[in-house]
Amino acid sequence: MLRCVSHAVNSPVPARAPIKTQRPRLSRDEVRERLLGATTELVRERSFYDLSVSDVTERAGIERTIFYRHFDDLADLLLRAATDAIESLYDAQVELDADREQGDLEAVRDAIEPAVRVYERHGPVLRAITEAGASNPGVAARGADLRRRFNQLVISSLDRLPGLRENPLADLSETARALNLLNESYLRDAFGHEPRVSAETAIQTLTEIWAALLDRGASAEGGD
After folding, report:
1. What is the pTM of this model?
2. Which fold has domain 74-223?
3. Which of 6, 39, 89, 155 has the most CB atoms less than 10 A away?
4. Are 71 and 77 in contact (CB under 8 A)?
5. How many C-beta atoms lie closer than 10 Å to residue 71's C-beta?
């Protein structure tokens, strides 16, 4: 007699498809903030020439296609970031009371501190714009426009100094331009990569230089 032997056959269980976790949708401001933050981190580590859109989007955790919904290219991102930096400087300057009763040294410090704080936060981006402008005429032109705005802020600051109201400079705009170039070079060196000095040290250094130069200029005018 034949005996039937039943063998249980284990049928394979179909693998479950992995559950995709949907990332929360970021707002426009959040995307821009991430991209700007990633760019700021990266330009601390490398020059503009060594940076790519892929580097920025990977560091930001943003898809490359999303980058181009907000910016044309890296230069556009940097310019918009710099514009935001200048606007924050303007906002800080507006808060200063133009009619305050102060000595020149305190007024000079008040004029310098907002610029230092902007470079403390945005220094790598502002340095990268200078690098990009060397080979990109459009960036160079926008950078020059931003520099003119800085010059105007310095003129406004100088015009409020009590000592210079009594003994005005021979050419206020040229003095402002020279001081702005000094500020820009020094602050780019101090904050263009990892901060080389503290913000307080930078404020004090520039305050002493401005005060010494302006005091000398005012004394020369008064002695004529």
Report:
1. 0.71
2. Tetracycline Repressor; domain 2 (1.10.357)
3. 39
4. yes
5. 20
